[in-house]
Amino acid sequence: MSHPSASSPRKIVVTGAGGALGQAVVTAALASGAAVIAVDMAFPATLPAGAETRVVVDLTQPAETAAAFGAFGAFDALLNVAGGFTMGESAWDAGDNWDAMFRINVETMRNAVRAAVPALRQRGGGAIVNVGALSAREGQSQMSAYCAAKSTVMRLTESLSKELRAERINVNAVLPSILDTPRNRADMPDADFSRWVSPESLAGVMLFLASEAARDIHGALLPVSGRA
Description:
CATH architecture: 3-Layer(aba) Sandwich
Strand content: 15-25%
Strand order of the largest sheet: 3-2-1-4-5-6-7
Shape: globular
CATH topology: Rossmann fold
């Protein structure tokens, strides 16, 4: 990765910035001294105030995404947090959930990467960090659509890494297990939440992969499993 000038803070684009993990990533990026461009379809009042650049974008729309990224100027890293999970139907009858899981997890990532790579090439390098899933390393019952979508994110991460590493663009992904979010607590009230991965912990790993310290890491699919 190339180095920004000492007078210019690193600029990091965070998609899905309004969600539980996205807010944690924004907070960690701001704490590191970076300038943050927060991207999402809507923003809660709890988004850290330091993220002064908030851009409302439907990342499932390629043209809208490209137009938004074209206005960002130079940036150092793209952290693709946008995504989602639902339990689904049986694998033999995935129904509408199949399209929904690919749309929110794969298309958002592909459109953001398509828009970001030209800017990173022009800059002379940078980093892309995606979010896969530990559970998607193999198929799971009632989760075929989600596992297939996140597995696609993981394979795309590896392919992008092989294509872009010579241009000093690092592409890696984190593979979290269960995140300790309000929704997951509500869905699994009897679980031991202390064993789950905190959004803050996962955000720290993502910021590491986006940093100069990770310049020699390419195509990694890094499990972040807590104590589950």
